[in-house]
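Lecture 7 notes. Example A: sequence first, then its structure tokens.
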Amino acid sequence: MSAPHSTPAPLESATLYDSDYLRWLIETATLLRSGRFDQVDVLNLVEELDDMGRSEKRALESNLEVLLRHLLKYQYQLSLRSNSWRFTILERRDRIAKAFRDSPSLRPYCASIYADCYAIARQKAAVETGLPLETFPEQVPFSSESVLNPDFLPNSNA
């Protein structure tokens, strides 16, 4: 007859974190739900929560950079405009809108990274299009409101 399954003590749980991450997640959630806080692997739980916040920020940065890059391509490569670019623009706006809906505190973070994301988008747009970097303005040519507006598309080569 086997012994009943017991929840690991914090030290065992820390080892479980390294050896079976999914099981660690499930057991940590079970401990929290049942109020057995003294058995929770707090150090790894805090690390995971920090990582989740960083992950949300990285996803926003990536979506904003791709959105800005496609808007630049759309503005400066009129003859190559495609439904694929428009789809990417729509898709990235949708992802950003969902991130804001789920985590409204990402809005001020978005404002704080806007210029940096544009600088990266500008560099990548130059490489991707083969156009000189100077083709694209050093300062962001689109307001953040326009960039996030589902109806906005740049009209012509500036």
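Example B, a different protein, same format:
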Amino acid sequence: MNNSATGSLKQRAIFGIYWSSVQWVSQVIVNFISGIILARLLSPDDYGMLGMLAIFILLANTFIDGGFGFAIIQKKNPTEEDYSTVFYWNVGLAIVLYIILYVCAPLIAGFYRVSLLSEILRVSGITLIINALRVIHECILKKRLKFKKLAIASVSSSVLSLSIAIWMAYNGYGVWSLVIQNLLLSGLPTIVYWLTDKWLPKLVFSIKSFKELFSFGLYVLMNTFASTFVSNIQGLLIGRLYNPALMGYYSKAHSTENLASNTVSLIVRQVAFPVFAELQDKRDKLILSIRKLTTTMSFVCFPMLFLLILLAKPLFILLYSVKWIESVPYFQILCVAGLAICLQSINTRPLLAIGKSKIYFYWGLVKQVIGLALIVGGLMIGEIWGMLIGMVISAWLSYMVNAALVSKYIGYSMRTQAFDIFRVLSVAMLSYGVAYALGVILPFGMYVVAIIQLIVFVILYLVVSHRVNRTYMLNVWEFISPLLAKFKR
């Protein structure tokens, strides 16, 4: 790859991050408004019922993509036969899976002992077919780093779906407000892609293309399925063993933490994989890209998550009202796991980029088995608190396995990774410790103390980072400066 090609890739990646950032910031604003309004209009039981069913919808969705999305992006020159074959497979499978969910809905409702869940699942399951109709459009846009259209479709859909959900919640529709919101979040972007994108499926289904893509995608599918199951087994266990209200408190804590750790990393993750795929034959450049993204991600995410742990109580009361106060300790523990989760978004993609899907699957299976044992074992020993601690241990073990694989197959050594991350982690922990101590000794009200802690944390983190992590700050600026220039234009 010559210098001009590399420069072009870097520029496209940066602008991809720009539009992903636009999408993320918009979603944060929408979720912020959603948190303030919907959480006040709806009850923990409403959120709890939707949380109980999340595992079934999410697992079905992993089959629809089937790893073909990664296979399409990883393949250097996919053909129209490839696209059309995957499209017809996805739609056909989505219909079959929806029928299965429809038939099993009463049994699932009986398992939870909440009869309304049967109707909710049958309506929510329609998202499977909707998502199948847009998978290929999204893959094509991501492979070409065309994140502007993805951002516009996502933002407009989020705003419209939230508006309708607020109206429904205000008029007493309860949990159905959330169900319809999710349907619109899936349906509206699908409509936009079909109306504005030039791609249409050809009347062809190639067995050759299917086998070639499936040989790579199968391992991604199995790993994603196992990961999704372990990541959402908590909802199944809490929903069965406890009441919908407690499930609602956990769901609110999890969704708020997820907004920080997963959504921020999504910006980099969805751009990183196609970039890594283009650099798969340039190992030195690939290592440099991984290291820059790792340090940039940790430099941004670590202080943000420590701040959320520090300010969790006033944040939840401000956003969601005092009725959600029981979510706070769950949220703080989940943020500790989030520190590892945000890093996993970087060091899982390189293996797929160089075609190591079998290795990705085998070690992914090991991680998920251990994670499941930690979560279930923790629940049996310490109830919900033990389960949460098991999730934290699982997240960090998973990250360490990923780091070891990147070290072995890519060349970004574990020692260097640990050094890069510890330099950021130590500064974030120092800033947290000082700010926390201030919260203990200051004799002011909760919100005044929170504002002082926020200011002290940010100033201390930036000052110390400028002293010991100046290179990382420059890496962040390298990403931000073109985005700001584009924003000004």
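Note on Example B: The chain has 18 helices and no strands. The two ends are 30 Å apart (CA to CA).
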